[in-house]
Amino acid sequence: MVATVALAEVATGAALDIEQVSHAFDIDGAELPVLSDVSIAVEPGEFVALLGPSGCGKSTLLRLVAGLDKPKAGTLREDEARITRPHPSRVVVFQDPTLFPWRSVWDNVALGLEAQGILKSQRQRVDDALDLVGLSSFRNAYPHQLSGGMAQRVALARALVNDPKILILDEPLGKLDSLTRITMQAELVSLWQRKGFTTLLVTHDAEEALVLANRVIVFSDRPARVKADIRVDRRYPRHRGDPYLADLRRQILGLLGLDATW
Amino acid sequence: MSTYSLSDGLASGAPRLSRAPLLATWLRESGVGVLASVAWIAFGLSCLWWDDVGDWSRTHSLGIAAFVIAAVALFGTVGADYLGSAGKALHQRAPWLVALGAFLTLWEVATAKFAWLPLPFFPPPQSIIEVYTDDLPKLLDSVFASVKLQLGGYLIGATVGFLTGVSIGWSRAVGYWVHPVLRFIGPLPATAWLPIAFFTFPSSWSASTFLIALATGFPVTVLTWSGVASVSNAYYDVARTLGAKPSFLVLKVAIPAALPHVFVGLFMGLGSSFAVLVVAEMIGVKAGLGWYLQWAQGWAAYANMYAALIVMSLLCSGAITLLFAIRDRLLVWQKGTVKW
Ligand SMILES: Nc1ncnc2c1ncn2[C@@H]1O[C@H](COP(=O)(O)OP(=O)(O)OP(=O)(O)O)[C@@H](O)[C@H]1O
Ligand SMILES: [Mg+2]
What we know:
heterodimer; A: alpha/beta; Rossmann fold; 2 domains; 6-stranded mixed sheet; 4-stranded antiparallel sheet; 9 helices; 32% helix; globular; disordered N terminus; B: mainly alpha; MetI-like fold; 0% strand; binds adenosine-5'-triphosphate; binds magnesium ion
């Protein structure tokens, strides 16, 4: 099968089942539906990109996957087990880096290991994660001394250090300049291929989605419904100018309502 | 703009008056130091020149001490280059030395020499020095008693306030019970409890400790609580997805995030507990600086009052400085995020 070619080499990731999930918020007594009957089955080690208009409910879906909120209807499962609360096997890189301002960069990255009580024996992992995002020389800096892009890289390192089974990324590269961004995309792919975790990536950039993911899921406007589920059968590293990807990109932008301009 | 024309003028004038700029720089660098020396010489002379209108034994020694300080200021200024950081510190404080010397001269002349100010109420500097030399044991006892009382009460109040604040900030159930009590009792000035405290507690010392703790505890509680309550949910979300347990959320997220607020509470508590300390010592406790003040007033020993007042203010500002130092250590991360 062609699809397996693109999958991570060693799938240590978990399967993720999102089954008929609906969610809504109460705003001043009125109900604001945000997710409507969303079903997505993610195989272990798959890299799934989520695309959709701003405010449609992507971040909300990620919070449900992380176990931070409970859906109004439907179920979410990680390897058959129902998701009811956060667990370090599913780590989130939030849209906002939310580093702890009172902790140095190193201590921020060490947060997960410290919370799980295994930091003492595993300090090396923190150093490795910092190396990975190229911020070893900033280990003693405080968050306010970092640029926006550096802060996001620290947030990425803080997630990766935990060896997650499912990595949940909410526009993690949004604040990076285009050069760092391309480098980080390549890093992310090679990391994913080596470690084999399942990845959910929210992005507003169709090209990014196509360069990185096995699957691109396009959501409708709020309340979000799955509008299209597109397989991207291409080997890595992918070429940005690939006509196959360009074709898919046109298709996706069309789904997002931008066909007139593109 | 003005600096341009100034330096231009200096540069063009330099060839003609080749030594003037050197002198000018030296005066700018050291002028204030020399002036400080002059001011203290003036103070020394003011002590020794005229006869005292009253009978004070330390006038002569004070004059000598003033000359010594003047000499130190002068040599410190001239030899600043060889003194390193001490020279720099002196240079920085020179303007204050000038002001202090001038003030003391004026004070000396206005009291001891010509009695322009009514005498028993405005004692001259040498009579205050006399208190420090002749009444030292009693003064030290008082300082010791005050520090002991203040420290005990403050530590108890700060600890209890901090723990209460964290609990009500964290737990809804605790908040339900404690919040109304806090609302009802908290705003009451701690001194209002004085009469009750003094007859319900076994000793005046324990009563005062309780009152000081109360005065400290209220602001610390309220600010710790508001600090914990205002921690962004995003921090908890991050910690929880990384596997944090509730104890970790309290100890490693809520408390560090609330710490800047806690320190505001600690500062406020320190201020209000000083007030309680002095009142408690004046009314009930038979020791401490407040009691010393009261005692001095009873004997119309005004010099003793001023002497005690100066010690008190040194202690209070010392305590504040210490708290600032602790805060600066614990909250280094805030440097650069907020204006200090
Ligand atoms: N805690 C909340 N309470 C009430 N409404 C919320 C809450 N969180 C999100 N919403 C609403 O849910 C909708 C979806 O929000 P969400 O953050 O999931 O959007 P998004 O798809 O991630 O958008 P973006 O691409 O701009 O990040 C928005 O209309 C928002 O107003
Ligand atoms: Mg979002």
